[in-house]
Write a structure and sequence with these properties.
Strand order of the largest sheet: 4-5-3-2-6-11-18-17
Distance between the termini: 55 Å
Mean pLDDT: 93
Bound molecules: S-adenosylmethionine
Structural class: alpha/beta
Length: 322
């Protein structure tokens, strides 16, 4: 009998796991589409956000930008293409537990481990927290129970109150690994931690709404997390109230509006109109901003993702100026 988080650990990151065996791939040809995979516009906007952090911190050099759970590294490649002002000082580093050695490609390093220091760093986590193994708990009028997996079936075992505020008759994910991961980053005082993920403000909302346990393969959602272990991604909506600290909370559409997505789309439209009779690559890139923006702020999709920004944070060493 395995607790659900141990089962999930094995399904995603064990020897035959969805991620460790290379089955799980973000992107158009893969299993799911994330914001950086929509197109280059997301990188331009995130680059603007990084410029704000960098300038506010006194333009530290070096300025490590760490993308944790980087997958194929699309977010970092999008940033590189966008070339924000802080690119003069940044080190772009992707971290993913599913890679087995350090890879260096076109100025981007991808490695399995976090660096030892997070001084003057920004830590990005796009759709990471939903993938950290979670437990499943249930509340009834008689008390609490937890889901274990045995012979391909769920078995419920009584447990002590796990400290979640949910109504009797509902179930919720218990996000201890996500909590501990965030706490371990905050402890090391980077300039910022930015997490973008599907989720809600409270666990009570998730429990009431249901449908928070998600499985994916080839762009389709499955309905049974116990079917075909290792062949499916297993994830959950993330409940913000289970995470430590006091992040600034926005939905992705607000975050991107604050960074000027409307102005970038208007610029794209104008440049396309100017060159529509003889379009070049730049004109096509500008036109593509219109559709990309629609996807990134879609209230029924990526636009509703929760953006959590933990800002502790002052430069930890005397920064040199780039
Ligand atoms: C859904 S994918 C994220 C895709 C990518 N961030 C994007 O935006 O396209 C989750 C990734 O997180 C990685 N991962 C899970 N736990 C991790 C951890 N503790 N540290 C680093 N990477 C982790 C997995 O191997 C997987 O590649």
């Amino acid at each position: 009998m395995e607790r659900f988080d141990d089962y999930m650990e094995r399904c995603l990151y064990g020897p035959e796991g969805f991620y460790s065996s290379g089955t799980g791939i973000a992107g158009r040809g893969g299993d799911f589409i994330t914001s950086p995979e929509v197109g280059p516009l997301f990188g331009v906007l995130l680059g603007r956000w990084l410029d704000g952090v960098w300038n506010e911190a006194g333009r530290p050099n070096p300025f490590p930008v760490l993308d944790v759970g980087t997958g194929p590294g699309t977010l970092l490649r999008g940033l590189k293409l966008a070339e924000p002002e802080c690119s003069a000082a940044w080190d772009l580093i992707g971290i993913d537990r599913s890679v087995d050695s350090v890879k260096e490609d076109d100025g981007i390093r991808i490695q399995p481990e976090m660096p030892s220091s997070l001084d003057n760093s920004v830590v990005l986590a796009n759709e990471l927290l939903d993938n950290l193994p979670f437990r499943i708990v249930h509340r009834s009028s008689a008390g609490w129970s937890e889901s274990f997996v045995s012979d391909g079936q769920f078995i419920e075992q009584p447990i002590d109150d796990p400290g979640l505020s949910i109504d009797p008759g509902t179930s919720a994910p218990l996000l201890r690994n996500a909590h501990d991961w965030v706490a371990s980053i905050l402890e090391r005082k980077p300039l910022r931690l930015l997490s973008l993920d599907y989720g809600t403000a409270t666990t009570a909302e998730l429990a009431e709404r249901g449908g928070w346990l998600r499985t994916y393969r080839s762009h389709s959602r499955g309905d049974d997390p116990l079917a075909d272990p290792g062949a499916w991604d297993i994830t959950t909506d993330v409940a913000t109230d289970q995470l430590p600290g006091s992040p600034l909370v926005r939905v992705q559409s607000e975050f991107l509006h604050d960074l000027g997505i409307d102005e970038l789309v208007a610029e794209g439209r104008a440049r396309w109109t100017e060159k529509a009779s003889a379009p070049d690559m730049d004109a096509f890139r500008m036109r593509s901003r219109i559709g990309e923006a629609e996807a990134l702020v879609d209230p029924a999709g990526l636009g509703s993702w929760i953006v959590l920004e933990w800002r502790q944070m002052t430069p930890t060493t005397d920064p040199s100026v780039a």
